Amino acid sequence: MEHYKITLSSDDVPTQWYNINADLPVELPMPKNSEGKDQIASLQKAFTKAGLEQEFSQERYIKIPSEVRELYMKMGRPSPLFRATNLEEYLNTPAKIYYKREDTSPTGSHKLNSAIPQAYFAKKEGVERLTTETGAGQWGTALSLACNLLDLDCTVYMVRVSFDQKPDRKNIMNIYNGDVYASPSENTEVGRQILAENPDHPGSLGVAISEAMEEALAYDEVKYTLGSVLNQVMLHQTVIGQELKTQLEIAEEEPDVMIACAGGGSNFAGSLFPFIKDKIDGNSDTQFIAVEPSACPTLTQGSYEYDFGDVNGFTPMLKMFTLGHDFVAPSVHAGGLRYHGMSPQVSLLTKEGYIEPRSAHQREVFEAGITFARNEGVLPAPETTHAIKVAIDEAIKCKETGEEKTIVLNFSGHGMLDLKGYASYFEGNMLDAK
Amino acid sequence: MEHYKITLSSDDVPTQWYNINADLPVELPMPKNSEGKDQIASLQKAFTKAGLEQEFSQERYIKIPSEVRELYMKMGRPSPLFRATNLEEYLNTPAKIYYKREDTSPTGSHKLNSAIPQAYFAKKEGVERLTTETGAGQWGTALSLACNLLDLDCTVYMVRVSFDQKPDRKNIMNIYNGDVYASPSENTEVGRQILAENPDHPGSLGVAISEAMEEALAYDEVKYTLGSVLNQVMLHQTVIGQELKTQLEIAEEEPDVMIACAGGGSNFAGSLFPFIKDKIDGNSDTQFIAVEPSACPTLTQGSYEYDFGDVNGFTPMLKMFTLGHDFVAPSVHAGGLRYHGMSPQVSLLTKEGYIEPRSAHQREVFEAGITFARNEGVLPAPETTHAIKVAIDEAIKCKETGEEKTIVLNFSGHGMLDLKGYASYFEGNMLDAK
Question: Are A168 and B86 within 8 A, CB to CB?
Fold first, then answer.
């Protein structure tokens, strides 16, 4: 019988995270301070001890604490793997297309996989409150729920323009007990200074990071969290890829092409690092494709160099692909992919040729998302449509060559809170940023 | 090990629908025409042959066509059963609470279970287009997707006030290729007449039904569909309850209390009729609770009598609990529960004492929904919060009595498109309709 869906039982939730630092083909350049500043010291103060340890760990596997593993189960992990048979038929392709359903998380994306352990380690270290910034809102949503599950307070600084434009995102964070503030806010020194100069300041991710970090630096019982870019986040997310390995074994499939979108890199790394390990080890010739918006072409057009992780230079300098820390991406709907930099690990593996980067235009990814929804039912988030677009491209190539490739993509999140983006596609007024 | 989640494989999708007509404890009163009219003839013209056959069938089990069963699988059935261990712990109850996740359907509710077979039978009979009305929008969304999957056109008449207030619902129907019109529209005689008198008419479910039926009566290649109340819908939905039986067997649980919300009755019937059969047969003493809004108390305050299914008297008269076909429910957020009548089968079984009806106020069901989301992660639709409220009440009773009851509820849909309702709860301006 056909495999339409491959589910695993709670027992199959991985027991350890995979840390690619142990297997990188060349040495990873370390973060460094910019001249005359000590951002590394700030970072050490702002993050939990466990987080910092994981950040620089060289251990290949790190045990998932049993309480975290249990919360993964309670929140529905493992996530199912689906085969897109309707889409295959529609494309009339000999290729097989599989998609791993991270949208089935209660918060609708993969973000909870790192929010839970970050909240857990903080709780264990006696932290009372976590702060973070959020742009599109997926990370702020996941962290709000994780903090509530672990009995921590959660403060989310949401870029004011998003706060005003996306009331639903604020609403869902409130439901999960998160305290959401439009940034710049009156809560912090940074925020008050900016508002004093311009009470109508629209905010930016840089400002929101500054506000969240200011609180973590000011109070011992407050720590700062980040939903992507860092190695700890990449490794937490490898529960996706490890489950996916088990599921592809059950389906008796060897993937030829594996695809994920990439903003800061966490859903890409989480779903594909466990497979890239095999390629580094010489045991696989799978093709790995990272897809980004043409509007924010970090991997395809950026430089591989030391740059700040944030706009204001609060973070240490990281060696990564970057468009420059002052790059302002056009306001595409895929808010989660509008980041100037990229995970240092994903960057290094791209530099070394293990990952092939591609970019796609906004209108064509929405078109792919609609094709997917009409055939498979599930509505993808704007970020996820990037992976779908390339999966469809690859499947069409197979139709031309007759190759029966197995294509696997990570379906990072659903688009239920992104319907305005789809509406603008239909209304014909969508920016097709190049 | 604990059962957090019980998944079934695609093979476990039921092979037949269960038809409670075969097992009703007393005879079901037949639909009848009102004086001087022949609504039964209209209905016969408006519906598919297969639909009408199922409507009056006395067969206990009706085979699910293999194409329909395959589409159920492709759209992700069977749905998982979860245990609400976090909620149990929060309530400090000895009770066990399980919830069947119909929100995992791509359209976010149970409605696709009937939309797929209705579209399938129509296609088989050479129909080219289906029409329907939608209020809250769940049924229109499911029918749009089902029609697209089966290569049928779909026209949805959406009450104008909802059309204007809920652009996201319209957007998602467009994504699924549904043609959505604000009703009253210029498409139909009825619509044009109303607009001629009042160009700003806000519309009503009654008007929308009239428009959808007018088209089905005017064209042979067009048929009309309905997402609840009818027996065919009840029986299509029994895939839920049959899966749930298998899952509870795996969990080794005998349910003491089973709960579902009830508007027209389809999610209640679908999840619980297969269990109520056992009670009718004398093999079960499970308690079955149907929960409705205090604002639309059909089962708790209505009369059991013959009444029209719609406001305008286009449908035959059905013997059911009703608040009167001209009853206008206050505008509570649970749009799917604002129906004056109730499935004749659910009505009869309530009359005969097999089903216990309860009502709940709007603010208290939203509060229950928020408690659920904060503990279990998943955000319930306003309709679903009614079942959750009563499950929590029952679990609290168990805390008082020390009883270790097994409580099972049908989680009929998610609330991702209902965040404005939650916002009004937090803003303190929610109507607590009594």
Answer: no
Distance CA A356, CA A349 (A): 9
Q: How far is A368 from chain B (nearest CA, A)?
A: 11
CA distances from residue B185 to B135, B154, B190, B315 in whole angstroms, order as listed: 15, 16, 8, 21
What is the pLDDT, as a whole number, of residue B165?
85
B174 and A426 in contact (C-beta within 8 Å)? yes
- Nearest CA to CA, how far is A242 from chain B (Å)? 19
CB contact under 8 A, B86 and A104: no
Say yes or no for a CB contact (<8 Å) between A177 and B377.
no
Q: Give per-residue pLDDT as tens, A18-66.
A: 999 999 999 999 999 998 999 899 888 999 999 999 999 999 999 999 9
* Residue that the structure tokens 């997707």 belong to: B145
| Structure confidence at residue A433 as a pLDDT band (50, 70, 90) | low
Chain A: residue whose CA lies nearest to B69 = A4
Among B176, B370, B417, select the one facing A175 at the smallest CB separation.
Answer: B370
The encoded tokens of residue A14 equal 């991985």
Q: How far is CA A326 from CA A96, A225, A310, A323, B169, in A?
A: 41, 22, 8, 8, 38
Within 13 Å of residue A248, how many CA atoms lie on the same side as its CB?
A: 26
User: How high is the ipTM of this complex?
Assistant: 0.96
Of A74, A176, A374, the CB nearest to B374: A176
pTM for this structure? 0.96
Torsion of CA A205, A211, A217, A223, to 10 degrees: -70
Low-confidence stretches of chain B (pLDDT beneath 50): 434
| Conformation bin of residue B361: beta by default, left when phi > 0, alpha when psi is -120 to 50 | beta
**What is the Cα gyration radius of chain B?**
20
